Amino acid sequence: MGESSAPRVFISYAPDSTEHEESVRNLWIFLRCHGIDARIDLPGAEGRQDWPTWTRDRLRDADFVIVVASDAYKRRAEDTAETGDGDDVRSAAHHIRDAFHRNDPSAPLKYVPVLLPGHSAGEIPEFLAAASAPYEVTDFTVRGTEKLMRTLMAPPPRSAPSMSEPLASPAPPAASRPGARSPLSHELVLAVAVQDGRVSCEATLAGAVLGRHGASLLPVGSGTLARAMDAPPRVAEERLIEAGRALCAALLTEDTTRHIARLLHDSRFGTVVDVVIDVEGADGAASALPYELLRLPDGRLLATVPGVHVRRRIATTANRTPTASPGPLKILVAVAPPTGNGSPAREPGTRGVPDATTGPWAALDPGTDRRATLDAVADLRAMGAAEVRVLEDTDPRAIAEALRTDRYHVLHLSAPSTSPEEQLPAEHLTAAPADAEAGDVIRPLQDGLIGPGDLPPLVVISGCAAAVPPGPGGDAPAVTLIRRGADRVLAMQAPVTARYATLLTTRFYTALATGAALTPAAALADARNHLEQERMHLTRADPDNPPPPEYAIATLLSTGDDLPLIAPATPPVPLSRS
After folding, report:
1. CA nearest 244: which of 301, 321, 172, 304?
2. Which residue among 81, 99, 376, 390 sits deepest, i.e. has the most Cβ atoms within 10 Å of its Cβ?
3. Buried b (16+ CB within 10 A) or exposed e, 428-455
4. Centroid of chain to Cα 273
């Protein structure tokens, strides 16, 4: 999560009961929904050893420290609890007590005692109760937190707010006001592991554990999306909704989904929720699940909620840190010939279309993918928003030569194939590690092929389902490309129609080219949302011939942070050949 001007608040508490801990989570989520960068010490129970340093850093970095009153916290703060019981809380309380003993004038303003429902002032440590009046939270609403929110939203230097001033909302000042705070961004990480057909997930928000759900039977697989898309559009959508709900139930507890739903519903307009799927396991099963299908219990599709950016983060030792480069957006397109080894068009009748080889819902074949790719970048070239070089050759040596000639932001590969082994020449695009075993490399790499340092920060693969493993126990070509050193890869999880491919690529590249601060995940979210709104409109206009529900097919894989491709405020550098 990037820098934010939101007030930084650290919540210090001791779990008193399951109900008490859930109340603390509710306070944490409420504060973040209303523009406060609230952090919680829940990770403190995760095995950290250097509690004094860990605690000191968080207390020092916070604008305010909320001390949640409870009998358990008071006993630890006053050293009446057993040694070793709640060392993190004890350490935090000692730091706070020392600040008051030093007569630090900021201490009464920075350290804020809070009473949650069901707790009393008698549970506040004596050194804090003597210096600061408690803030009572009656419920997790604007009215129930009014006094607390006045204090937390007061601009530095921290001073007691005037209670005579009207309080319209605890949200930050309007964006148009000078010095106004921008909406707070949230990073929601779902760490997913699959073993022996069972899936487990740990959800963390802003670095703190939101919930854990483990050892559920895997309800979907890498082929779920493609199988559903073979049905008529209405049937396909029903299957995708069912699969999305089942996947959500397998990964997230009811409490976790409730907190996520509230975060999405109550946060200010413009808030970004960066959903990062951390996948673990060597069998490829976790990386190939169709996470873009995740549907919350309230019916919302997570990937199409405004402000939500979804991507997968693949663990690999070949990670590199890409740097943004000057604009305009520069794309190297390598397209397959109009004829050749491309996959044939799908059989008539698939996806509920009378003839799937023609018309707007025709499946993407090699020739159509070539046209779709060129159509997608044509307007950008015409308006000068991007520069494109098109190679009539997908040979890795030709690509390598082009990449050595100019610095590109995107390598777009359009190479449909007839078999999983031929879907993408991923093994050609990267150099193998020196200590790689023979099984890690599909075939020996030759001189002149592309190494990790030569790849642009984004690789886009169209025309084939490169995000799907070729078989059980293997990695998808897109994952292989990530493991070999690519930073981010946009790929498909099932075949797409020509129309969707063209519109998705056009909208995606337009967002990247015209919004230099946008990241690939943000551009994909924009394209996905736009096309889904259009699909719903077309469905209402012609209920008997709805478009196929292709909203979950595109996926973005990454290794680390999702950063912008174009460096801001730098003079443009054109291609030497376009």
Report:
1. 301
2. 376
3. bbbbbeeeeeeeebeeebeeebbebebb
4. 7
Hey, what are 433's tokens? 């590690």
Q: Which residue type is seen at 144?
A: G
Torsion angle defined by CA atoms of residues 10, 14, 16 and 22, in that order, rounded to the nearest 10 degrees: 30
Omega within 30 of 0 (cis) for the link into 157: yes
- Give dist(CA 96, CA 127) in Å, integer: 9
Question: Does CATH place domain 329-558 in 1.25.10?
Answer: no
Domain-by-domain residue ranges, the chain? 8-152, 186-314, 329-558
Query: d(Cα 204, Cα 418) in Å, to the nearest integer?
Result: 40
Contact residues for 52 (Cβ-Cβ < 8 A; gap 6+) = 91, 95
Whether omega for the bond prior to residue 328 falls within 30 degrees of 0, making it cis, is yes
pTM of the model: 0.85
| Sign of the alpha-carbon dihedral angle for 99, 105, 111, 114 | positive
Residues contacting 527, CB < 8 A, separation 6+: 503, 504, 507, 508, 511, 554
Same fold: 8-152 with 329-558 = yes
* Alpha-carbon gap, residue 350 to 233, rounded angstroms: 10
Domain 8-152, CATH among 3.40.50.800, 3.40.50.10140, 3.20.20.330, 3.50.50.60: 3.40.50.10140
Q: Identify the DSSP state of 84.
A: T
Q: Which helix (H) or strand (E) holds 460?
A: strand 458-462
Q: Which amino acid is at 163?
A: M
Phi, psi of 520 (to 5 degrees): -55, -40
What confidence tens digit (pLDDT) does each residue in 220-279 have?
888 899 999 999 999 999 999 999 999 999 999 999 999 999 999 999 888 999 999 998
